Amino acid sequence: MGTRILITGATGFIGGRVAAAAAAHPGLDHVRLLVRRPDAAPVAPEGAPPAGRPVVETVRGDLRDAESLRGICDGVDAVIHCASAIGGAEDVLQVVNEHGTRDLVAAARRAGAGRIVALSTASVHGRGPFRAADIDSLPLAPGSATSRTRAAGERYVLDAGGTVLRPHLVYGTGDRLVVPGLLTLLAALPGPLAGAGSLHSMVEVESLAGALLGAALSPATRPGAYCVAHPDPVSEAELLAAVEPLLPASVRDARGPAVELAEARALLAGNPVAAHHLEIFGVDHWFADERPWTDFGRGPGPGFTAAFSRHLAWYRQFLSARADRP
Questions:
Q1: In 171-204, where does DSSP find H-type helix?
Q2: How far, in Å, CA of 97 to CA of 306, rounded?
Q3: Residue partners of 279: CB distance under 8 A and separation at least 6
Q4: Is the pLDDT of residue 102 over 80?
Q5: Closest CA to 20 of 218, 291, 205
């Protein structure tokens, strides 16, 4: 019998990619998708799956309701936990990211699931500069309610002997945070951000999904935390060159001289959203960890410039639709 896995967050940006990869994986026997809203779940094909493909099952559960998670892991060999809450009230974040993870891990342990893999974030280490940083030597220093509650949820996974994946910046079709956030920053400045030579750990969403699935299936996966990013950090210049064409023409045409980091901080003192993104993109956030691409049996895919071009059409469509909303 093949491996049976449970995936949470199967309707999300990253979890949806993991669910799709799992549904096409010939080494799996059964894929169970935990969803909060059944109407938003991927539609499982009727009848028997194609030869070599796993059975896909959708079940309802809510990380905010511990009772709904009882029995959810029965019969599964591995759990891939991608569901989380990002932003909003801290009490909701705590219920979902901390208590929900605690209850899911408890359900997995009661069911005897042999592998627990959880998606987290490198933001649990706080803001940089980080340059070629080894996450095993970095303390946890979360600076927001989201990252604090995700760090708290991690502890239940790690204490159970599970594996935590901490990407920094995840981009690709469906990204509504990273590239849109950088564009918000650039549009708020009177000129381009002066090159400070910062370096960033980035991963395409498809590569991250492959790493999550690989972590659940590979015999080489180790307990503990991994940072998942392409081995080649993305330079500030490479990143800005990729996203500048997505700025509205009116913004590009009105741009003045380049703005230094210190000046940008002063200019954005009254704009907390743009200031937040400045601290992400204006300083180094490079975490050096090549273990995922050896331990999980998956490659990191092409570098940033080549991979980003595959998503330009989606970003343009998303940004256009957002600009048209009243």
A1: 178-188
A2: 34
A3: 127
A4: yes
A5: 205
Helix (H, G, I), strand (E, B) or coil at 3: strand
165: which 2 tokens? Answer: 């994946």
226/294 Cα distance (integer angstroms) = 12
| Backbone phi, psi, residue 60, to 5° | -95, 135
Question: Could you give phi then psi for residue 252, rounded to 5 degrees?
Answer: -60, -40
Residues near 130 by beta carbon (within 8 Å), at least 6 away in sequence: 138, 284, 285, 286, 287
Amino acid (one-letter) located at 37: R
Q: How many residues does the chain have?
A: 326
Q: Which domains, and CATH codes, for the chain? A: 3-320 (3.40.50.720)
Residue 298 in tokens: 């998956």
pLDDT-based confidence at 195, cuts 50/70/90? confident
φ and ψ of 3, to 5 deg: -75, 145
For 119, the token pair is 């998606």
Provide the CB-side half-sphere exposure for 35 (13 A, CA): 21
As a whole number of angstroms, the distance between CA 20 and CA 95 comes to: 27
Q: What is the pLDDT of residue 38?
A: 64
Of 255 and 42, which is predicted with more confidence? 255
Q: Which band of pLDDT confidence, cut at 50, 70 and 90, is reported for residue 27? A: confident
- Distant-in-sequence contacts of 135-139, Cβ < 8 A, 24+ apart: 135/166, 135/225, 135/226, 135/227, 135/287, 135/289, 136/224, 136/225
pLDDT digits (tens, 9 = 90+) for 224-260: 999 999 999 999 999 989 998 999 988 888 888 989 9
Specify the amino acid at residue 231: P
Kindly give the pairing relationship between strand 115-119 and strand 55-60.
unpaired
Torsion angles phi and psi, residue 296, rounded to 5: -95, -5
Structure tokens at 233: 């950090």
Can you give the pTM of this predicted structure? 0.94
